[in-house]
Amino acid sequence: MNIRSKIETNESSTIIQYGALSINSKGREKMQEKDDLRTCYMVDRDRIIHSKSFRRLKHKTQVYIKTSSDHYRTRLTHTLEVAQIARTIGRGIGLNEDLIEAIALGHDIGHVPFAHNGEAVLNDILPKGFRHNENSIRVLTKIEKAGVGLNLSIEVLDGILNHSGLSEKFGEAATLEGQVVRYSDKIAYVNHDIDDSIRAHLLTEEMLPKGATKVLGTNHGKRIDILVKDCIYNTINNLDTGVIGVSLTQEVGNALGDLRNFMFENIYKGEILKEERKKAQFVVTNVFEYYYKNPSAMPEFYKGIVEDEGLYIGVADYISGMSDDYCLMLFNNIYVPKLSIY
């Protein structure tokens, strides 16, 4: 028996009946031999970590753009926090941690420069709109490895596609592991964005909704602790009573929703960062327009996409893969006059 088979055997004794056993995976789009050491989900996790698009997350904005402090979250540190929260919840419930980690590490890989500000620009420009979760799938299946893609398991791609939102208008992951990541994403970003906003002196604990902090606590660590434990215990209760789904209790879920709404009203879409959002959108808009008018200036790979799938898609793929720094560099090279001495 090889090592992978031993791990798969161990999974059957540690993962609950509703969890996703690696041996039961629906497989990949392209058949390939199984690894001797790693299960399919372990392979997927490693492929994502070693991808170029994952590395670029370190220079993509979470909320705060080009801050001087090293302590503000980036899209990469957000991803790592989501992965850690999700693994804790998954272990508490008895789910497949490798599948959870793979989904969590890949869930935001399709984000554009300047976070949701850049996403809003592409959504307005592109005839069919733009959603970062769908773009994550495109990056992982059609862009990575010079168009070959990473050939990830169906369960990983499903979890990534369905990680956004919590309302019924958004799809729900087919696995409990994917549902765990969906909740962990919200738990992570609401709380760490509050933490960053307090660090930036834009918020204080006293400004947060009193009803929410009464339920969840008045500091970062306490809130995450309560949310993680509530998700574990409530999901276990769901499963024990025949409800096959991940969720928070109504009281805790409402409190998280209140904090999330507060952040949208005051930080994400509020007046505080309005000017910075406009600047970011101005940069992305003008870089997009330049390459739309001058597609020959793009790298060969993206020119090939233009030929195969059209100008909008080719330019969007190029822009969406950029880090904030790279997008700013291109903007400066294209539009900012250079000093000339005669």
UniProtKB/TrEMBL annotation:
Residues 75-190 form the HD domain. SUPFAM superfamilies: HD-domain/PDEase-like (SSF109604). Keywords: Hydrolase. It comes from the Bacteria. The keyword Membrane does not apply. The keyword Hydrolase applies. Coiled coil: none annotated. GO terms for molecular function: triphosphoric monoester hydrolase activity. InterPro entries: dGTPase (IPR006261), Diverse_Catalytic_Enzymes (IPR051094), HD/PDEase_dom (IPR003607), HD_domain (IPR006674), PHydrolase_assoc_dom (IPR026875). PANTHER family: BIS(5'-NUCLEOSYL)-TETRAPHOSPHATASE, SYMMETRICAL (PTHR35795:SF1), SLR1885 PROTEIN (PTHR35795). This is Deoxyguanosinetriphosphate triphosphohydrolase.
